[in-house]
Amino acid sequence: MSERLPPLHEALRAVFDTATPPQPSAEFEARVLERVTATLAGVALPEDTSGSGGFSGPTGAPTPDGVPAPGVVVVKKGVLALGAALLLGGGGLGGVLVGRVVLTPPAAEVKASPGGARAKGSDEALGSAHDPADERPAAGVQRPSGATASVGGAGSMPAKAAGAPNEVSAAPPGPKAPQPSASVQGLADAGGAPAGHEDASRDTALSAERALLEVARTALARGDVGATLAAVERHEREFPGGRLLEEREVLFVQALALSGRRGDAAARQAAFKTRFPDSLSLPAVDAALAP
Amino acid sequence: MSGERPGLEALYRSELRSVYAFLWRLGAQESEMDDLAHDVFVTAARRLSSFDPARPARPWLLGIAFRVFSDARRKRRPTETPSEAMEDPVPGPEASVERRQAQQVIRRALATLPEERRVAFVLHELEGLTPSEVSNLMQAPLMTTYSRLKTARDEVASAVRRFQLIEQSRNGSR
């Protein structure tokens, strides 16, 4: 068919050109990626109490009383390579850390959706044979208080320091599940903040910091001390006085202790106590070096 | 990304903004964006093996987004009218006044269209898909797509004028 439509009227085109759509924030981008990752891995995130999410479809199995159940349900063998998925945190804060999840295309469609009736024809060319709305994890992992429950607390040290309170930082909510191989700067650049704006720059830097520390947490959670140290050392180089300094130091102490460098860990621990005498992470830091 | 199938994360990083913009233009509200974007990329991940890497990813992904959006609308509130569904006064703090006003006018104008014409219009006029691509994506005959596009243009132009006048009178009365 050779019929062509004439160009859109100039005045109308001008209105559309002016009305550029809003852009997703860096936080949105990270949050949704985390949810996508969790859904594909079959990991249940804790229920979000912030009220986001507009549909009534069932979400992914939040546990009662806000504490995430430790467990990973692989939807279908071979769908994902799930290196490690740990649910961390306690004391009702419900910190969560999804470990390194490698997103690879599935070889086949996953299980049929129970009760997931789809619109007619939707599977033909575009939709899936499985409705992701039926298995959405709750949006985000925001805490009711608005504070971030860092996984620098007891839970991130396998078989150690159980019961120690979580670190609470002033960082915006939402542990992410970044890919360790991803460029941290790339993560930060994806924020869509206008260049040159001071607040946006701060947000961008914070996103980069957070992404880097998330890499460290993920690595620590799977016991990869080398990768943890590499990430925290990089954070130290790139953000020596960063806003997540306290969080980094917790991870540093934990990683050093786990690697057997107890002397270095103790030195960092002492410096940490001097610098952050009132830190909520002190129990976690102490627990890392507990005999 | 020609010749090689992109990984999901690469696709996500490169196309999230397009998907977000597309959903916004279709009328998704801010509160829905999380779930919609989630569903789009979960579906995409599961269909990645069926994606032809020789073709551009965006039309394929927008097709998924269209279907996710339509399904969500059907499931949500069947009796909800488009204008109610698309009322979204929060375009974002970064927007200039002029841009915010234009966004509101566009959103309201698009909301007056029935879904099939709104989707066709957005895909062709704003996302740059050819009528043939729109036709394939919406699983509609090409002639039907042309007809929808022509009608949608008239309707959008008329609605935009109407809402611009309303905006002007509002601003004038302040």
Tell me about this structure:
- The complex is a heterodimer of chains A (291) and B (174).
- Chain A has helices spanning 10-18, 26-41, 184-189, 198-221, 225-238, 245-259, 262-275, 282-288, and strands at 81-82, 101-102, 148-150, 167-169.
- Chain A is mainly α.
- In chain A, the strands form two sheets. A two-stranded antiparallel ribbon of chain A has the order 1-2.
- Chain A is elongated and about 75 Å long.
- In chain A, 49% of the residues are buried.
- The model of chain A is unreliable at 47-129 and 140-195 (pLDDT under 50).
- Chain B is an all-alpha fold.
- Chain B has helices at 8-26, 30-47, 57-76, 82-85, 97-111, 115-126, 131-138, 142-173.
- In chain B, helix 5 crosses helix 8 (142-173) and helix 6 (115-126) crosses helix 8.
- The model of chain B is unreliable at 81-90 (pLDDT under 50).
- The chains are: A mainly alpha (291), B mainly alpha (174).
- Chains A and B meet through helix 1 and helix 2 of A and helix 1, helix 2, helix 3, helix 5 and helix 6 of B.
